[in-house]
Design goal:
Layout lengths: L6 H27 L6 H15 L4 E8 L4 E9 L13 E3 L4 H7 L5 E4 L7 H10 L3 E9 L2 E10 L11 H28 L10 H18 L3 E8 L2 H8 L1 H19 L5 E7 L2 E7 L3 H18 L4 E7 L10 H17 L6 E2 L31 H16 L6 H16 L3 E7 L5 E9 L8 H8 L2 E3 L4 H7 L3 E5 L7 H9 L4 E8 L5 E8 L10 H12 L6
Parallel strand pairs: 10-11
Antiparallel strand pairs: 1-2, 1-6, 2-3, 4-5, 5-6, 7-9, 7-10, 8-9, 12-13, 12-17, 13-14, 15-16, 16-17
Helix pairs in contact: 1-2, 1-5, 2-5, 7-8, 8-9, 11-12, 11-16, 12-16
Length: 554
């Protein structure tokens, strides 16, 4: 082998130096990019792992220095750890009086190189390296906004060359990049937290609730993890704003937020959010849903005691007979409908979706007492323009689900129509091909007739019936629609019997045939609490047609 001579050696040394410099620049860049887009815990770990690689270390630790108590608390360990070390320790704390190295840190000597090969190493520092199973280490300070707050500690095992003082500058450069990455992460976390927080009340906002519900629905759908939602509406906010000013209204909103946060404190996995305006909610996962009803009742009790005009609360629990809950929107619509109903009957206790209305909690809707004046939203759905709003809402929802099944799309139509008229609930039935039998395939119940218990209801809804026994159903399956009132002496007796069994006053229905030749029927049932909806049968016919035959993008 011919060794390089003269200028060749200089050229080789220059090339090696350049390659090492480029490698270190890439390593620093990796530290800066590590963890981008990840949640804070995972991002912090990736940053520390990148720092360990950049320092050619076998392990790295992130410690926070408590100046007042003169101790170092280890927040994270990564890499080749000793048997006793934990990645995210809860109580790995070292006092300045336990280590010569930490005592120097307490005195302002923020950087330290330790090596078992150093004959002058302090006995306690040697003992610590032995405890870690490492041969050498470097500790350098971490800065945040120019202030020293912690330490990057990297170490090598006995198979590697020891760190020496010449390595201090490089490890300090890596630590500076770690500090910058952590500072950027903290800023991003703070921005995200602000983006998910209601500025007035400090509660979560609608964006945070949507994210929480996305995870909770998966746990309910895949593992039947109990899930519930209480929607709360502050009564009389407009009156407070008009009479006392918006500052007074804001104070009452914050007072309601405090009440809800207090009653939700009993739940580990929960979220209290402001949906907007005067509407709030408590979302709970993994707890007995009866506890959510109890918490909502306590919120109502305090609300009617402490707030000027009380509140209205609607609750939905996924384990009740309310139909399938596969998406957050269904859960929210059921809870919102229950809350709307509580406001209409001026209930001082929660109204629970799919359960009978609370006894002795309603007042006459013709009550003219000014102090009990209904909220303006009691009339939503009654003005002529609201029909256009409903149509727009349904078509927008269908446009966002062009590739979903007919069952899913028809469920969207049924849910939005039922919510619009404050119906009892809806049923979705299927007639396969030319079969003479129709089978209920889905339902959503907003409130249960007092005469029926949950099991009776499930039996009623899981059955099938012969098409020939219901002429109007046969007409609807062919693409028609109809409306039947319980007091209509000319109506089909079979249809009236169904209304009587459900304590419903009317039903509106529409149907049609999909591309496979299967017939579908959507029925929305009304009672005395519903807005007038029989005239909507024709509109529902068009919406069902839009659901069965979605537009195909060019």
């Amino acid at each position: 082998m011919v060794e390089p001579q003269g200028g060749d050696r200089a050229l080789a040394a220059t090339r090696l130096a350049r390659e090492r410099s480029e490698a270190r620049l890439r390593a620093l860049s990796d530290v800066g990019r590590a963890g981008v887009g990840l949640p804070k815990p995972q991002a912090t770990k990736q940053i520390l792992l990148a720092a360990s690689r950049a320092c050619e270390a076998d392990a790295a630790s992130l410690g926070v220095w408590d100046r007042e108590r003169q101790l170092l608390r280890v927040e994270l360990n990564v890499g080749d750890l000793a048997d006793w070390e934990e990645e995210a320790p809860e109580d790995e704390v070292y006092g300045a009086d336990q280590s010569t190295w930490l005592a120097g840190m307490a005195d302002g000597l923020l950087s330290c190189v330790l090596s078992l090969e150093d004959p002058t190493i302090a006995p306690d520092d040697r003992e610590y390296l032995d405890l870690l199973g490492k041969k050498s280490s470097v500790g350098v300070p971490l800065l945040y906004a120019g202030e020293w707050w912690g330490e990057l500690f990297v170490s090598r095992d006995h198979t590697r060359e020891s760190f020496v003082m010449a390595d201090l500058d490089w490890v300090s450069a890596v630590a500076a990049q770690v500090s910058a990455a952590l500072e950027s992460l903290e800023h991003a976390t703070r921005v995200e937290r602000l983006a998910q927080t209601d500025s007035m009340t400090g509660l979560a906002n609608r964006r945070a609730l949507d994210q929480w519900l996305d995870h909770a629905i998966v746990k309910w759908r895949d593992h039947q993890m109990p899930l519930g939602l209480a929607v709360v509406d502050l009564n009389g906010l407009k009156r407070i704003n008009d009479d006392q000013g918006h500052d007074a209204g804001d104070r009452v909103l914050r007072q309601l937020a405090s009440i809800l946060a207090q009653v939700a404190h009993r739940f580990d996995d929960s979220l209290v959010a402001r949906l907007g305006g005067d509407e709030f909610c408590i979302a709970v996962s993994g707890h007995d849903t009866a506890q959510l009803v109890d918490a909502a009742a306590e919120a109502c009790r305090q609300g009617w005691e402490l707030l000027p005009h009380g509140l209205a609360c609607g609750v939905v629990v996924a384990t009740d007979a309310v139909g399938s809950i596969e998406f957050p929107a269904r859960l929210l619509r059921l809870a919102d409908a229950a809350q709307y109903r509580a406001k209409r009957i001026r209930s001082r206790v929660p109204v629970v979706a799919g359960r009978p209305l609370p006894a002795d909690q309603s007042v006459s809707l013709t009550d003219t007492d000014e102090t009990a004046a209904p909220d303006r939203r009691m009339f939503r759905g009654r003005d002529e323009s609201s029909l256009g709003h409903l149509t727009d809402a349904v078509l927008r929802a269908l446009d966002q689900a062009p590739d979903e099944t007919a069952r899913f799309r028809l469920g969207l139509v049924a849910d939005l129509v039922t919510h619009h008229v404050d119906g009892v609930g809806w049923w979705l039935s299927l007639r396969g091909g030319t079969s003479g039998t129709v089978q209920t395939v889905d339902f959503s119940l907003y409130r249960r007739p007092s005469a029926m218990d949950a099991e009776e209801l499930r039996d009623e809804l899981s059955g099938s019936f012969e098409v020939d026994a219901y002429p109007q159903t046969r007409f609807a399956l062919a693409g028609g629609s109809y409306a039947v009132a319980a007091d209509d002496s000319t109506a089909d007796p079979a249809e009236v019997a169904i209304l009587d069994g459900l304590s419903a006053t009317a039903v509106i229905a529409a149907g049609g045939t999909d591309e496979h030749g299967d017939g579908w029927l959507v029925e929305v049932f009304l009672d005395e609490l519903s807005t007038q909806g029989q005239e909507m049968a024709g509109v529902m016919r068009l919406l069902v047609l839009a659901a069965l035959h979605p537009l195909v993008a060019p």
